[in-house]
Design a protein that fits this description.
Order of helices and strands: HEEHEHEEHEEEEHEEEEEHHHEEEH
Helix content: 25-40%
Structural class: alpha+beta
Strand content: 15-25%
Bound molecules: flavin-adenine dinucleotide
Shape: globular
């Protein structure tokens, strides 16, 4: 999904880079012939409290400079999404969908065409700079590569690699699994475009939503369940070392004390298909258990600081010739091209880019 930038704190990197990135991505897709479907999205309030939050969300969207975002009552909601129920909606006309797999392939082509090399399946074990501003040595499974400078964009392992390069211990990445169901093909008409819940205050995740992808398939999700392994894509995947690492981190312990109730509720929704369905039915009552098809999952790399706060904004650190993207949660795919410009303009101007 190409986010319009409704939610983010005005003036934050997330707010500014989301919008700039969305514009860049749209024009990039145009030049590369990648379908970009500006289908719009409907955020749905289920009761009066949520309707109040929706009004605040609209005010924030306006503060963020978004145009055309408007509140819609049930009759107009029914025109936009005929199967949805709710007391009030917020329609964002500029939200879009794109196939990020195609975008990533186009980025890869650009790198290769401009003389770069891509190595897949190669794990960087650690990074080390030879003194301030010196070359950077990357330790791979099969030997060392020397670079003039390095930008770490390692998602779920961003903290581990950055720390290996001498960066701060804080913040650390906490993995949250997001589980999806695919809506079976014969019931795709239940969702025309994008249907979202009103986000819960204090939580950085947007809640289970309905997404019609560019290929016409529809997904429901993701929830946000603490993963018991950094790459814990499956529910029963457990990595004792990763759990120990979390428990040793005071930021995680503080976070767990604050969010234990919503954490348990997410675990319950993950364990029970019926509960997951019931939560989805609050938006589309016609949904039935047999409508939920294949299950899949992604993992969010969410940075948590030592005070137990889920870090809201994008975070980039620099140590000598190593730049580390320490927190790049959603909408970092939308913002990817703008994040790249931000890193180049603010961190790389005095550094050699080519491999040493
Ligand atoms: C379920 C889900 C849904 C999302 N939906 C959206 C959306 O609709 N719109 C949006 O804008 N954003 C979305 N996001 C967020 C977006 O995907 C991320 O913000 C973005 O991918 C972060 O980019 P990144 O480069 O920091 O990390 P990643 O995309 O995770 O890339 C990091 C890469 O580094 C590799 N790597 C890690 N460690 C090492 C190592 N030691 N050696 C070698 N390679 C390594 C990894 O294998 C990976 O390929 C979603 C995220 C999730 C989890």
């Amino acid at each position: 999904m190409v986010h319009a930038g409704l939610y983010y704190t005005p003036g934050s990197l997330r707010a500014t880079l989301c919008q700039a990135g969305g514009r860049k991505l749209r024009s990039y897709c145009g030049t590369r012939g990648i379908p970009f479907d500006q289908c719009g999205k409907l955020v749905v309030a289920l009761d009066d409290d949520e309707a109040q939050s929706l009004r605040s969300l609209q005010a924030r969207a306006i503060e963020n400079g978004l145009t055309g975002v408007r509140l819609v009552g049930p009759p107009e909601m029914a025109e936009i999404e005929p199967h949805v129920q709710g007391v009030l909606g917020l329609f964002s006309p500029s939200t879009a969908v794109v196939d990020f797999g195609q975008v990533a392939k186009a980025f890869a082509n650009d790198i290769v065409e401009s003389g770069g090399t891509i190595r897949l399946g190669a794990t960087v074990q650690s990074l080390r700079a030879d003194g301030e501003g010196g070359v950077v040595r990357a330790e791979l499974d099969d030997g060392e590569i020397v670079f003039g400078s390095v930008v770490i964009c390692a998602g779920l392992h961003a903290d581990r690699l950055a720390i290996s390069a001498g960066d701060l211990e804080d913040p650390r990445i906490v993995p949250f699994r997001g589980e999806y169901f695919e809506l079976i093909e014969s019931r795709r008409a239940l969702v025309r475009a994008l249907i979202y819940p009103v986000p819960k205050p204090r939580l950085p995740f947007l809640g289970v939503h309905f997404t019609r992808h560019v290929d016409g398939s529809v997904s429901i999700g993701p929830n946000a369940v603490l993963a018991l392994a950094r790459e814990g894509y499956r529910r029963r995947q457990i990595e004792p070392a990763a759990i120990l690492e979390l428990l040793r981190y005071e930021g995680f312990r503080k976070m767990a004390r604050t969010y234990w109730a919503s954490g348990l509720s997410e675990f319950a929704g993950s364990a029970s298909r019926r509960l997951y369905l019931r939560r989805a039915q609050r938006y589309i009552p016609e949904l039935e258990a047999s409508d939920l098809g294949n299950r899949s999952a992604g993992i969010r790399a969410q940075a948590v600081d030592r005070h137990g706060r889920l870090v809201d904004d994008f975070v980039v650190h620099r140590r000598g010739s190593i730049i580390a993207v320490r927190n790049a949660p959603s909408p970092a795919a939308t913002a990817s091209l703008a994040i790249a410009s931000y890193v180049c303009d603010n961190f790389l101007d005095d550094l050699p880019l080519i491999s040493a």
